[in-house]
Write a structure and sequence with these properties.
Elements lengths: L14 H4 L2 H22 L9 H16 L3 H6 L2 H11 L11 H4 L7 H8 L1 H16 L4 H12 L20 H16 L10 H10 L7 H9 L1 H10 L4 H17 L2
Helix pairs in contact: 3-5, 3-10, 3-12, 3-13, 5-9, 8-9, 9-10, 10-11
Length: about 260
């Protein structure tokens, strides 16, 4: 996937900079950052997780743009911040890199101790982003969003989420957006152990959680762009090959588990 709204280097006005190595490096920096973010995100995806990360970024972009039709959101997320939000959304599950595959990919119900391990991925993700921020040595809007998202995307509007039990507006907006996008993708995507549900069914379930699991603004905006979500799900659906790779990876993880 080419990053949404990434700058193009094919215009005549850019030809001189293309021939200048230093200028070319600056010009290519956004694409390089995006590639690095995607590579880092995929380290947390067990096996070959198909196009999950790309779908999340596209869902977040569509939802954030719809929210920005309201001035209150447009003021918070001008174009550069919106782009950083979309990039950062790819890192929502980076903490899963510390969770054993045999637990992440377990087809049945998780034991209480396994559920605790899975839920630890939110705080672990936050810690990973903090480590990257310290190494970077300076402020970064992308990392600021990534920190909010990794820690907060399993919080709930009604306060029943984790890890902090935040409620309402205490949940960062970036995490609220990713929570809806991630839930839609989880519902509509095929998994090794179950088939995804149809778009209409997923929308029904999400609407039922308006004001419960999800912020009302997020659900309302998603309804407005649900046709975009459906098209993203269709165009970026995981293939039979993707699913077979996941099956093979799961079998290997189970075989290697103690």
């Amino acid at each position: 996937m080419s990053f949404p709204d990434s700058p193009s280097s094919n215009t005549d006005g850019d030809q001189q900079s293309v021939n200048d190595p230093a200028a070319r490096a600056v010009q290519q920096a956004p694409q390089m950052v995006h590639a690095l973010v995607l590579a880092l995100a995929r380290t947390a995806e067990p096996g070959e997780a198909g196009h999950h990360v790309q779908r999340i970024q596209l869902y977040v972009q569509a939802l954030a743009r719809q929210l920005c039709q309201a001035q209150s959101y447009a003021a918070l997320w001008p174009d550069d911040r919106l782009q950083a939000l979309v990039q950062a959304s790819a890192l929502h599950d980076i903490g899963n890199s510390a969770v054993p595959d045999r637990i992440l990919l377990k087809p049945g119900a998780l034991a209480p101790e396994e559920l605790a391990v899975v839920r630890s991925h939110a705080a672990i993700g936050r810690d990973i982003i903090d480590q990257i921020q310290r190494s970077a040595g300076g402020p970064s809007q992308l990392l600021a969003f990534a920190r909010e998202i990794t820690l907060g995307h399993h919080e709930r509007w009604d306060g029943q989420g984790y890890p902090q039990g935040l409620a309402g507006d205490a949940v960062p907006l970036s995490a609220q957006v990713v929570a809806v996008a991630d839930a839609y993708d989880a519902l509509t995507s095929h998994r090794v152990y179950r088939a995804g549900v149809a778009h209409d069914k997923a929308m029904q379930r999400l609407f039922q959680e308006r004001g419960g699991q999800f912020a009302p603004d997020m659900v309302d905006a998603m309804i407005e762009v649900q046709h975009v979500f459906a098209e993203i799900a269709r165009r970026w659906a995981d293939s039979e090959t993707d699913l077979q790779l996941q099956i093979d990876y799961l079998a290997k993880a189970i075989a290697e588990s103690p």
